[in-house]
Amino acid sequence: MGLGDILFGRKKLKEAVPEKLFALATACVTLEAELGLKPAGKAAVCFKALSGGGFARAERELDELLAIAARDSGSRVTRSEDEYGFQWLVVEDVDFDDLVGTVHLVSSELVSRGFGPQLLASIFRFEGGPHPVYFIYGYKRGAFWPFVPAGEGQQRDNPAELELKAKLEQELPIEPDLTRWFAMFDAPV
Q1: Domains detected in the chain
Q2: What pTM, to 2 d.p., does this model score?
Q3: Cα separation, 65 vs 71, whole angstroms
Q4: Looking at the predicted structure, is the pLDDT value of residue 141 above 60?
């Protein structure tokens, strides 16, 4: 933080780190074999859109790139916006490696165009337990955390999340600060 940031109350946003996404593809073997969790074939990238010509141009180019990537990998990509103004690029693909690759492509493309600070997270859905299990990747921290919604309303299964952390922290970069394990109850996956 520089003197100008202190004087004007601005803080520079941290850059996104999309490269660690591929660790989930290798951890998928453990998730399936040891925990009985299978990829649901859905993931999403969440980012905050900016107003302005540069971002609109980057989004158009990203849409064109996604159309090509989807055609090559067989992925299906749709876009939605939530009530807070966050954009969601939802990726569907039965091949988990292609799913992770397409999510990485989206985030890398936004970073390469200078919009890395706008990336919030990616979320991957797994099934096989009593509730769906999500692995959320926080771009600013370059780490994953498990999210297991439970029951009615906005409740979490914290013991299941901590168990997943213990079993996967050797294979995945897991966020060590549990206070940063935010939930994404209304994610479109």
Answers
A1: 13-180 (3.30.70)
A2: 0.85
A3: 10
A4: yes
